[in-house]
Amino acid sequence: MRGTFAAVVGRDLRLAARRRIDAALPIAFFAVAISLFPLGVGPEPQMLRQIAPGVVWVAALLAAMLSVTQLYAGDLADGSLEQMLLVPGGRIAIVAAKAVSHWLLTGLPLAIAAPVFGLVFDLSPEGIRALVASLLLGTPVLSLMGGLGAALTLGLRSGAVLLILIIVPLCIPALIFGAGAVAAVDAGQSARGHYSLLGAVLIFTGVLAPVATAAALRIATE
Amino acid sequence: MDVVNTRWRFFRYASPAAFYPLAGRLVPWFAAVAAVLALAGLYLGMLRAPTDATQGDAYRIIFIHVPAAWMSMVLYVVMAFWAAIGWAFNARLASVVARAIAPTGAMFTFLALWTGALWGKPTWGTWWVWDARLTSELILLFLYGGYLALVSAIDDVRRADRAGALLAIVGSVNVPIIYFSVIWWNTLHQGASVSVAAAPKMAAIMLQSMLLMTLSFWAYAFAVVFVRARAIALERDNRSAWAAEAVGRARTRTQTQTQARTQTGAGT
User: From the list B147, B163, B185, which residue is nearest A180 (CB)?
Assistant: First the structure.
């Protein structure tokens, strides 16, 4: 099982390394989406500081949802998904590996890039630290739930929009606690409660989402 | 023997062929009950219940608003339950019922939001607040929408039923988490400027009216869901003998009716 997991993660990372522009698209989307807000809302630093946590988190959520549609699509198209699902007892390992590699390719880079956007929005150093911490805790939830959505909408006509419609409502807790942690730090309060709840959501999703995703893949490929 | 017998009878209606005529016979009754109870409830609520001291007559929308909100939540659980039964036991009718419930649940959710807006304008001075209850009801509407969109996007019936069941189950597991996260989000950001709990203390007649409306909505939901489930079952089994028989029976009935009508028309 561990071998399957490592093999799938390694394969997905290698595929991403061969198509670097494709792999960089979610980050580019993230940057463009965030840059729109000061243009739309206005450049007042006070207001930007206030909306920064929500804006960064919403952009991260949408970047994860838009990139996750391709998680299983390529493997379904070339038939390797069916072969992978035949590995005995490895279905959940494969699903978990897919979510982990998606997180390594989108969630982690977003968390690393987040300080730059924190600076652009004039966040305090503590606020930036909270932003990175909340993204590190919260983006795995987005990858896990997005994987479930990708499995449910596998091969459907309007899969990408459908995925956003069905999965975004389920990601609301991560958004609330993630953005809330930064807002709490910015207001001079402790963000510990938010981190704990975000961690609880992550554990809950980490345990249940792979099982549900494996079931969804079975339904989709039957 | 009795147990076996009653069980057999109970599960008999899990077959679309047995369900179809039974539901057809029950629909007018449920519709009549819904209409009678709604008239009674609206009579009590609109004409007999006293005017509220602080909210005036505007509060009377509660007799639609609260039952609709209750139905929206209950129907989601019922839908997830039947979808799960249909998936776990391969019970085709259960999946049909789950799909038939979804539009009614979404309708009640929308009705609760809409009447809430109509109630909010005169009492709170605004159509909408990002209050915890309102927001979680809105998310419930999104969940219904996601379920409906997913099952209609999948052409293969079996896959659509199962994927919908999985989504409904995940949604019902998530609903309490979403609910509490929304409450905490709201309280962490700003004090509750508007509390739904501060509704007027309820007179007995108001409670009676609300219960009558709730029962009426239940009966309405049964009637509509049965009509829809009948149509879906017929569509899915359109090559089976019972469906042909049911359609044939309906056709001969309309034919004899039109014949009778033309004959009487010719006579006069």
Answer: B185
